[in-house]
Design goal:
The protein is an alpha+beta fold. It has helices at 42-50, 92-102, 107-121, 136-148, 166-183, 194-200, 218-223, 228-233; strands spanning 4-13, 16-26, 31-35, 57-62, 65-66, 77-80, 154-158, 186-191, 203-208, 211-216, 240-247, 250-253, 256-258, 268-274, 279-295, 300-306, 309-315, 326-331, 337-340. Helix 2 crosses helix 3 (107-121), helix 2 runs parallel beside helix 4 and helix 3 (107-121) crosses helix 4. The chain starts with a strand and ends in an 8-residue tail after the last strand. It is built from 8 helices and 19 strands. The chain has a 6-stranded mixed sheet with strand order 6-7-8-3-9-10, with helices on both faces. Strands 13-12-11-14-19 form a 5-stranded antiparallel sheet. A 4-stranded antiparallel sheet has the order 2-1-4-5, with helices on one face.
């Protein structure tokens, strides 16, 4: 196990800059998720940690070593890829043993490590099978087993669950998190799925266009997003945004005036943010026209129009309203987010 430190990391492809001076500190044993939309640079950053991409500028340390110039095999890391990268002509056991054989480990050590990993991951009944005989979840466990037999200082995961169906992704999320809790190895995990990030991470790094937008614990990012990008990316369904202006009477938006949280906020153009789950149904609330009702069992999702703005609300109540009818909703003022209309930065 080892901490990982990235200092002013940049990556250029010719004259095109893709990573713009990233600084991240990952503590020993921490599970850190790099999250962001496709093309934001998260996989490139992971590949630089692995040594599969060169670093244009900056310093990368694993433990007490600067590893910028070290080959991947010398960095003491293990990587799990999106496509599993298993050898089709080898059994599960030989796939898991391959890196140890390549390093010259003894047969006894290889057998011990493979059996240890197979026991942790529930792979013992599958050791004699070939990849073509395995399900997607089993293939993913084998790829993880091949990584952990090496006992590396750092695990790197590059969107490992993207090829699995929704139900299996939930199962494998729990397995990967449980594996981390059992082994305590520093882990860097890349995904575009913010639900994966929220449920798995000790710390999330939100990236956008090659830059870090915010770093923090999952609930810190959910409760206090630093800007519009983070606010819109973290949370599902996404936060509602309404453009308008802060005034002494409230937040003036097209066709409606919304209540503002307590505090002295200067009059300015702003964006009013409220998460769907932070509306309450109340007769004293703001009139909203129902556009669509989607019952989901434990809660009801409602698309509705407030003034000239379409928003989404999620309610624990089993709402029986029909499209075209009016309901009354009130945002929880303790959970309203306000952002500068020009910079996108948080105001409250």
């Amino acid at each position: 196990m080892a901490p990982v430190s990235l200092r002013s990391i940049k990556k250029n492809y010719g004259n095109v800059a893709t990573i713009h001076g990233v600084d991240i500190d990952i503590a020993d044993g921490e599970f850190v998720v790099l999250v962001g939309p496709s093309g934001c640079g998260k996989s490139t950053l992971l590949r630089m940690i692995a040594g599969l991409e060169t670093i244009t500028e900056g310093e990368l340390s694993i433990g007490d070593r600067v590893v910028n110039e070290l080959e991947p095999k010398d960095r003491d890391i293990a990587m799990v890829f999106q496509n599993y990268a298993l050898y089709p002509h080898m059994t599960v056991a030989t796939n898991m043993a391959f890196s140890l054989e390549h390093r010259g480990a003894s047969k006894a050590e290889i057998a011990e490590r493979v059996n240890w990993a197979a026991d942790i991951l529930g792979l013992k009944p599958l050791l004699d099978r070939y990849p073509r005989q395995l399900s997607g979840g089993q293939l993913q466990r084998v790829a993880m087993g091949r990584a952990i037999v090496r006992n590396p200082q750092v695990f790197l995961f590059d969107e490992p669950l993207s090829n699995l169906d929704a139900k299996l992704r939930v199962v494998m999320r729990g397995e990967i998190k449980g594996l981390h809790q059992r082994l305590g190895v520093t882990t860097v995990y890349v995904t575009h799925d913010q639900i994966e990030a929220m449920t798995m991470a000790d710390k999330i790094v939100v990236m956008n266009a090659g830059r870090v937008e915010q770093i923090g614990a999952p609930l810190d990012l959910y409760d206090r997003p630093a800007n519009l990008f983070v606010a819109g990316f973290i949370g599902s369904p996404a936060m509602n945004f309404i453009g308008g202006r802060i005034t002494p009477e409230g937040f003036a938006a097209a066709g409606i005036t919304l209540p503002l949280p307590a505090g002295n906020l200067p009059a300015s153009n702003a964006v009013y943010g409220i998460r769907p789950e932070h509306f309450a149904l109340t007769d004293a609330g703001i009139p909203a026209t129902v556009l669509l009702v989607e019952p989901m069992g434990s809660e009801t999702q409602v698309s509705m129009q407030i003034g000239e703005h379409q928003v989404i609300g999620i309610f624990r109540e089993r709402l029986r309203a029909r499209p075209g009818e009016t309901i009354h909703v009130l945002p929880d003022l303790d959970l309203v987010h306000l952002f500068d209309a020009d910079t996108g930065q948080r105001l409250n």
